[in-house]
Amino acid sequence: MSDTGGAGGAGGAGEVPTVLRCHVVAENADALRKFIEETGPDTGCRPIARDTPTGLGLDVYFRQDQLDSARSARSAPRVNITAVENVTENWQARKQEVGEGDRFAARGFVPRGLGRKE
Description:
The chain has helices spanning 29-39, 64-71, 88-96, and strands at 19-26, 50-52, 55-63, 79-86. Helix content is 24%, strand content 24%. It contains 3 helices and 4 strands. It has a 4-stranded antiparallel sheet with strand order 2-3-1-4. It is α+β, with helices and mostly antiparallel strands.
């Protein structure tokens, strides 16, 4: 997720954009796929769409300005978007845990971090 934009994504130097976890439900996989491709939310590293009583649901992350744009996207009428929670504070704290530079620069160095170990 990009750091551009200010509070609420409105722009402004040094301001932290509001980041929201949203649940998107579409009538089918094709409608969900088109919405995701058009709006470009952060889906996390392993997005898993799940069946819901009303269709196929997926949790995604939007900055407030992205969410506003997504609600008016051409594919939006085929999905239901629910803002679940404001995760800005947690998002900023987690970003502080990520190191600077290229973890893979030193040959033989074992990467460490928050990612899934496989």
